């Protein structure tokens, strides 16, 4: 079943539970083994897989960690990054220099010789 926004919460809980059960079986784990590794009771795993009751988010995260599903959490809840304007505003507030001013004189304080006027180089 494809998960979409049209499904009710009960149907979604049932589908999540069924997918977790299928992944557990694919990894050849019993409910008891999964419960032990996740640090929850076997009854909690049974309820989670049945979709009958909503589990706490911490239980879902523990089970996801054991089944190797936490990488998918990044796709499900991506980190919100600041936009270009927020990045510019933050950079302006940090006080760091962004550009060099160029040389205005010799480092030792002496005068520079007067530069020659520019020419094409083909004058006689």
Descriptive overview:
- The chain is mostly helical and 124 residues long.
- Helix content is 51%, strand content 0%.
- The protein is rod-shaped.
- The protein has a domain at 9-76: 434 Repressor (Amino-terminal Domain).
- Helix 1 crosses helix 3, helix 2 crosses helix 3 and helix 2 packs across helix 4 (57-67).
CATH superfamily of one domain: lambda repressor-like DNA-binding domains
Can you tell me the overall shape? rod-shaped
* CATH first level of one domain: Mainly Alpha
Number of beta-strand segments: 0
Classification by helices and strands? mainly alpha
Count the helices. How many?
6
Taking Cα atoms only, what radius of gyration do you get, to the nearest Å?
32 Å
Assign the CATH architecture of one domain. Answer: Orthogonal Bundle
CATH-defined topology of one domain: 434 Repressor (Amino-terminal Domain)
Described by strand count, sense and barrel closure, the largest sheet is:
none
Mean pLDDT: 79
Report strand %. under 5%
Question: In terms of per-residue confidence, which ranges show pLDDT below 50 for 5 or more consecutive residues?
Answer: none
Into which percent range does the helicity of residues fall? Answer: 40-55%
Summary?
The chain has six helices and no strands.
Secondary structure topology:
Blueprint: H1 9-26, H2 31-38, H3 42-50, H4 57-67, H5 70-76, H6 84-93
Key traits:
6 helices, 124 residues, 434 Repressor (Amino-terminal Domain), rod-shaped, single chain, mainly alpha
